[in-house]
Amino acid sequence: MTTKISREEVRHVATLARLELTEAEEGRMTEQMNSILSYVDKLNELNTTDIPATTHAIQRENVFRPDQVSSVSNREGALANAPQSDGANFIVPKVI
Amino acid sequence: MALHTLTIHALHNLLVRKEVSAAEVVTAFLVRIAELDPKLNCYLTSLADSALAQARQLDQGPADFARSPLMGIPLAIKDVLCLRGVRTTCASRILEGFVPPYDGTVLERLKQAGAVFLGKTNMDEFAMGSSTENSAFQITRNPWDLDRVPGGSSGGSAAAVAADLCAGSLGTDTGGSIRQPASFCGVVGLKPTYGRVSRYGLVAFASSLDQIGPITKDVEDAALLLQAIAGHDPRDSTSVEQPVPDYRAALSEPIKGLRLGIPKEYFVAGMHSEVASAVQAAVQTCRELGAEIREVSLPHTEYGVAAYYIIAPAEASSNLARYDGVKYGYRVPEARELLTMYRQSRSQGFGSEVKRRIMLGTYVLSAGYYDAYYRKASQVRTLIREDFLKVFRQVDALLAPVAPVPAFKVGEKADDPLEMYLNDVLTLPASLAGVPGLSVPCGFSTDRLPIGLQILGPHFREELILRIGCQFEQATPHLRAKPQLD
């Protein structure tokens, strides 16, 4: 099997994805991603020049609704699920 | 007669005639759950108390059970649908304590119809999987053979229907997650057309593919449940405004004269011979019912797995970016810096299949790889979709197997993700094309494992595939059976 993605690239992708992999996970992930990415190379058997991309099977464009103010929020309900809040805001670790 | 064995429409008739009370019906299922769920592990959260209280209220109130076919009917709900005030986990550690402050549209509609919820069912974490083994909490067993998987990702819902632990259930299907477990468990499962049912309140996995649908004991029940949940919803801009037909009314029309296509690519190498012969026998039954059978071709079928396992992880990596330990879900307690908090919370909260898909999705969308992978897969999706549009100019609907093999053993494919993905080969193309698909029991293997017939139709033609399924079902009463569990 050809190498599609190196261990260093896997580490970089994990950073982009905001994941932290253990040494063992990183090795296994590299192996499995290589196997899957080699398989999906099958798509290159098809010439897709000039074929438009499909992003949704049922394409809908410009779904508008009247611009009316309505209340959908449930502040207590939303904050109740926060790992940390002060009753009005979500609290996160210090950023700067 | 044992109430738990009955279909939704049979229970409805008893309730309307006041031959049973809603509380008796709910109690029958609660007794059954207490007895069997410790073995099967279908439910993640029990709603026994509220279900019984609601049923008693219906019995005492002025409730007219004839008002809705779902009034007082006990249902099981896949734990990926938001139910106000009830823990909704997606079978993930990262959402272990999440209590939605709102109802998803489908559950709001079922509540209005008077349905009773027995509990939330097990699934592959975030609906990513084909065996329900990826649940962070428990392994659901196939009621036909406890050493085997119920399929996935809606394995808890399908097993609960098969084992009579509910009258019917809701699942979700992104690449086969309703149809395949329905097939593995010997029950009926319908994936509606993309856009037919609102996704508001469905925790997103791959938004261009996800659909909610019924898993039931017969086709008529699937029609009743679809009727209750289908239709436009202003809160989901991908739900369509097309009118919803009367699904049940369409069921009784014979299929004589319909043109049914057999896609030759769906009888793949490596297919279990008993699956192929059960489906061939089903085709013969449809021919005897007067349908005209034609061999047809969907030439890009073999590219479905590759396209899907780029597109679905790409969408998942984006959707699951929201789990950051800030607004809801798990947060690692000790992190003192934001980026570390994100990375550690996500790494500890997600299971390995979810991480794998986030990684794959992030990779195929990243700079330099987008065109080679994501764009390419989206173009192939066009070809797959066009295959269906073309074939539905030649035939009215398609008949095919659901999965190449009957239910496999727990652990059998768990170590090889690619092998697990390849099992989805026959359900993924319809998901990519957005067309509706129905799984109906069509036989058993020699070791008594159920086999499903997949009926695929054009966009928004659920009434047609339900009709074919119902006519097939009524012509094959000998295929109706229940697993031996007592």
Task: Give a summary of the structure in a few sentences.
The complex is a heterodimer of chains A (96) and B (486). With 96 residues, chain A is mostly helical.
Structure description:
The complex is a heterodimer of chains A (96) and B (486). Helix content of chain A is 35%, strand content 0%. Chain A is built from 3 helices and no strands. The longest helix of chain A is centred in the first third of the chain and has 18 residues. Chain A is flat, with a radius of gyration of 22 Å. The model of chain A has no long low-confidence stretch (mean pLDDT 92). By secondary structure, chain B is an alpha/beta fold. Helices cover 38% and strands 13% of the residues of chain B. The model of chain B has no long low-confidence stretch (mean pLDDT 97).
Secondary structure layout plus pairing:
The complex is a heterodimer of chains A (96) and B (486).
Chain A: H1 7-16, H2 23-40, H3 75-80
Chain B: H1 8-16, H2 22-40, E1 43-46, H3 48-60, E2 74-78, H4 105-112, E3 116-121, H5 155-162, E4 168-173, H6 179-185, E5 188-191, E6 211-216, H7 219-229, H8 247-250, E7 259-263, H9 273-288, E8 292-296, H10 304-319, H11 338-349, H12 352-365, H13 371-394, E9 397-401, H14 417-422, H15 428-433, E10 437-444, E11 450-456, H16 462-475
Parallel strand pairs in B: 2-3, 2-4, 7-8, 7-9
Antiparallel strand pairs in B: 1-3, 4-6, 5-6, 5-10, 9-11, 10-11
Helix pairs in contact in B: 2-3, 5-6, 7-16, 10-12, 10-13
